[in-house]
Amino acid sequence: MKSHVATEAAGGGIRWLGGGMSMLGLALMILLHWEVFFWVNTESTMGVVQRIFYVHVPAAWVGVYLAFGIVALCSAVYLWLGDERADMAAVAAAEGGMVFTTIVLLTGPLWGKIAWGTYWTWDPRLTSTLLLWFIYLGYFIVRGSTDNSERGRRFSAVVGIVGALDLPLIHLSVTWFRSLHPQPVVLKPEKPTLDPDMLMTLMTGLLAFTALFLGLIVFRYGLERSRWNLELRTRRTGAA
Known about the structure:
By secondary structure, this protein is mostly helical. It has one domain: Four Helix Bundle (Hemerythrin (Met), subunit A) (Up-down Bundle). It is about 80% helix and about 0% strand.
């Protein structure tokens, strides 16, 4: 009885946290779109199409770096300690990462068509980002490829860790290789080269996408936790 009450309390806390983060993310997203359409100055070289930057870059930060970084970290914890909660967090982050990386791969070609004259080119950063998307698609395929759920979770954890090796390649590809992709304008050894209004709009986008992502993975973690508790009760009932 106490265990059931504790589980319900934890579930309620997860719903409140997920709801709060999601509402914050949506509010910031509304602010971001107001800034993009009505406030920030138009970039002098690329014009209006540059405004995709304020969606493309935050989505890349969340989908490529934050989400799949969490997947790798939680997967390592799961393999080391066998803690199911780490696996739940990993799969929740992986699903969010797939969503936001898909946004990156959709907005990038729209921007590239105007900037480069083509929707797609086998640029090092584009190619390595697409490779990451397929690696984490493989994460889910491997996870469901065996009847033994524990073995599937362990195999997918290995994929999650190995996939993170692509993250430094994505980040450094524009400096290591000849690339059409723009050089960094924020994370530079000196100072950012964006105008203050553009930098502020970008920061709004980063906060909005991060809050929305965290809200979504909290909800997804709660769903995975409920599914796990249901499976556990079913096993106990069957054993009894």
